[in-house]
Amino acid sequence: MILxxxxxDFMTFSTKLKExxxxxxITRIEAISELMAILRFDSTIEEKITTxxxxxxVARRVFKDIKKIFNVTPHIIIRNQNRLRKKQIYILEIKExxxxxxxxxxxxxxxxxxxxxxxxxxxxxxMVAFVRGTFLVIGSINDPKSGGYHLEYVFSKRKDAEFMSTxxxxxxxxxxxxxxxxxxxxxxxxxxxxxxxxxxxxxPQSLFYFEDIRIYRDHKNMVNRLNNCEIANQEKSTTTGLxxxxxxxxxxxxxxxxxxxxxxxxxxxxxxxYPESSYQELALIIKTETDYQIGKSGINxxxxxxxxxxxxxxxTKS
Length: 318
Fold this sequence. Notes:
The protein has 318 residues and is of the alpha+beta class. It folds into two domains: 13-202, Homing endonucleases (Endonuclease I-creI), CATH 3.10.28; 228-317, no CATH class. It has helices at residues 13-22, 28-41, 56-70, 98-104, 124-138, 158-170, 191-200, 204-253, 262-273, 279-289, 296-317, and strands at 44-45, 49-53, 75-81, 87-94, 139-141, 151-155, 176-180, 183-188. The chain has a four-stranded antiparallel sheet, with helices on one face. A four-stranded antiparallel sheet has the order 5-6-8-7. The N and C termini lie far apart (82 Å).
């Protein structure tokens, strides 16, 4: 079982997802499509096929599938790498039956980078396996806890990136291609699409983790938006109330109260008592404490009258 909440666990979300993918049994056809992607995008082909992995689970997966499908046992070399942090890398070398292997995987030895052809992926299962195999060697995904949603594949050749993006579009993923540091990145930013891809990889533990974080973040963002909206409304009510109090004071200082009907005068008095209340709150207070049934629109109507009276009087004076 893969655990995502171990304190001090240095493994990335990508690493754990790849481990979960590699623990799933697949058919021979799916294995061929996976290997087609892995050897095409992450190997050198000369007198032998050489491919290097940092993930032990992926290395085991490739070793097992090559042995099972082609009856060839790859030579495996394990080396320690001390850059940044100590870790092991796994180098697989295939020296036997190269022509047969490359032929089955539709890879030409003389030009490994000949554009991939869509006809080699005939069924949805083959398409998914090809995308999955590509992810195992050149794909990565942000931990949703990091604050952003991002899944990417990094290719050395533009034509490979364009092929993958076209394939993903056919599978209803809105991927984009971006050139970065002489590499070509095919990426997804939509949390929903990234979730769909993890689901497509049939990795339930990674999916549950991703969705838990996504739901938490969405809920937190919604609460923050509501709080911000409430604060903005409160600030608006306070500002509006202060302006209305200025109008009311002007009316009283200039003995204009008698020019207003009694209900408007009642609203004036309650505004002075509750200067920061919203229209809704002010209407509720007035209905509770008096016999006057009034709503938000009624409150607004009275303040329009008050504002007009103040403007008319100021225009007369000027």
